[in-house]
Amino acid sequence: MGNAEPLYYRIKEALEQRIAKGEFRRGEFIPCEADLVDFYKVSRTTVRKAIGMLVDEGTMTIVRGRGTIVAPTRLNYRVADLMSFTELMRQQGLRPSAIDVRISRQRPDKAIAERLGIGEEEAVYEIYRVRTADDEPITINCSYIPARYLDGHDLRSIERKQSLYKVLEEDCHVEIHSTEDSIQAISADRTRAEILHVGLNDPLLYIERLAYSKAGEVVEFSRIYIRGDRYKHTITLRKRS
Amino acid sequence: MGNAEPLYYRIKEALEQRIAKGEFRRGEFIPCEADLVDFYKVSRTTVRKAIGMLVDEGTMTIVRGRGTIVAPTRLNYRVADLMSFTELMRQQGLRPSAIDVRISRQRPDKAIAERLGIGEEEAVYEIYRVRTADDEPITINCSYIPARYLDGHDLRSIERKQSLYKVLEEDCHVEIHSTEDSIQAISADRTRAEILHVGLNDPLLYIERLAYSKAGEVVEFSRIYIRGDRYKHTITLRKRS
DNA sequence: GTTCATTTGTCCGTATGTATT
DNA sequence: AAATACATACGGACAAATGAA
Question: How confident is residue B104, by pLDDT bands cut at 50, 70 and 90?
């Protein structure tokens, strides 16, 4: 009977709640696996899967031979993973929006076709947006998406919904699974300085992003210019084990 | 006895080899789990663990109900995870080094004590380095590490070994498990412009980094200034599942 | 220095559920 | 509707690390 959430996931959430309620405190050991098995009446496999997720997310740390402890330091709140501009801004208490949205269907130039892994004859959509937070321009965003993902869908929802990834997922059934960002610092040229309300040659973050579907195909290539003075890009990296 | 590597890890490497040899091609399905169980004479648990690692690393993609495919696009080569400056430069075929290394033991100021999660009375080491690639200055790096991690160890090895994380791991037995980077674009002031051989007000990447031990304690806080024209910071993010 | 109890790591086999074709 | 393939879950066994007796 259809409890949608798997058991291990419910156990994981239960453990998170016990941390939130102060029953498990940072830096202290939680009950050993055997005790959790007894407590929740589940198998050790399930307990270990739940704990494994919490470890992956940086909430807990396992010390072999001793036990499992709640990580003493909370990582800077889950900016680790893929998060849209919209989500990021909201998390910081800002009101995200977009102005000057322009969408066109066109042939890609060679550089863009190559990044997307398609031929130059296959059409792409160019989605240009200036994005704002509390009505102040923050980023210039120019995305290229192979037309086959968007053809036949209502593109005006991009303006309404703001989050491109949300439109892709909900309307087009294409889920972005991972992204690859290449980050540089550059100087604002005249055009971009004007758009972003900064001075000529002021520093900008320049990001080239590739977004991949679950199946590993390149869904989006985008060039993003971000005001240096108003934005911090926070990223958590874990050592490969 | 004593094969140090666990079975699932050997299976994982075996699968990687079969990709490298062209037996499994990008975008194509690999044998189903049952067949791999037969082939390698191991349990399904073990096969799934091996595949799970490859999925986490972006090498493979699971499509439920259909099978497991080798990701069609190779992610930009494993810059996903935590990698030291030394490793990063070597990977790009450059010769990393460090000049002007200065190490001192001191009391932290309030900002630094707070980041490290220690009291202002607890001593820290300040490790200042200008790092080069092919003899060209690339970054200014100023790290703060609570003294208790380094006291009693030979700090000159930092100059020799170049990689601070390697010294921490091999000499001090402190392993860096994850880092949290906050990235901004800023303008070079006079001092930093001179050190990095760039013009005044040229764009720099500015990174504030916190490095955590396996136990979740802050081991290092560092401020890093990077030449914008010579460096791309590449990062892969995965969606939380 | 050794032994011992505790705790996590690895591995197996099996059964059943769910998504896709 | 049936076959295939991955997802979840159980329970048991032994290995390896740790800290304390």
Answer: very high
